[in-house]
């Protein structure tokens, strides 16, 4: 739910400079996770404006939250739809013959599937002889492509589009993954002489749909005007705080304090929940001896 969009919240505030750890009243992090971690639990309390907000439902469907990378040219990264028509197959035949002058191609059908087969004009004997991996000299050694993901990894209930690059793997091999992977699409292939580098990504463009809005048109207009003119506090998302018995913000706080003993204790201490037996044994041993050599 989106509640009080872009407004101040005065209720239930924690004293300035302090973050509630949710355990002062006897409730552990694991207990909180049973009913769901809230913004209040992790110190997300402040808004940058004081107008009345509105509420609605966020991420009801995957397409309600779409993230595009913005590249160095300040363009949104997008993916083109792949066409498997006869015209495309003809282009594949021509591309193989152009890139590999010593090869011929033909289309074969096996068990209801069509394959483009490439073979040496020298005959089948040449095909059976082992050959070194061939990469054309005039082709960039890095294949750049766009990856479209839906409901994957840290981007649950969202669609993301991002640039990727791999060394000396052909676009044809990568494109073949489109037939094998679900909720993933690869496209916009190009060959370059350099990999992706830090600093090439300018930012992200978000397309967000909020459904079942409860506020009035005036409230929505006021909130969006404030968002455009004033902006918002870019808090970490709730998914960054973990779902296990040890809250990741506690580990992060210990790291910032250079308290490495606490960091290790938080990560290795016994915790409730189903874990493999050897992990349970390791945690118990660490709690008793604090000795990493013990096993």
- Secondary-structure class: alpha+beta
Largest sheet: 5 strands, mixed
Q: Give the termini separation.
A: 46 Å
What are the secondary-structure elements, in order, as H or E? HEEHEEHEEHEEEHHHH
Strand order of the largest sheet: 7-5-6-2-8
Please give the share of residues in helix: 25-40%
The chain-level mean pLDDT equals 76
List segments where confidence is low: pLDDT < 50 over at least 5 consecutive residues: 1-26, 122-131
Classify the beta-strand content into a percent band: 15-25%
Discrete helix count: 8
Describe, in plain words, how this protein is organized in 3D.
Helix 6 runs antiparallel to helix 7. It is extended, with a radius of gyration of 27 Å. With 295 residues, the protein is of the alpha+beta class. A 5-stranded mixed β-sheet has the order 7-5-6-2-8. The N terminus is likely disordered.
What labels describe this entry?
295 residues; alpha+beta; 5-stranded mixed sheet; 9 strands; extended
Brief description of this entry?
The chain contains eight helices and nine strands. The chain has helices at 29-35, 86-99, 124-128, 171-176, 217-230, 248-256, 260-268, 277-289, and strands at 57-58, 65-70, 103-110, 113-120, 142-152, 155-167, 184-192, 203-208, 210-211. Strands 7-5-6-2-8 form a five-stranded mixed β-sheet.
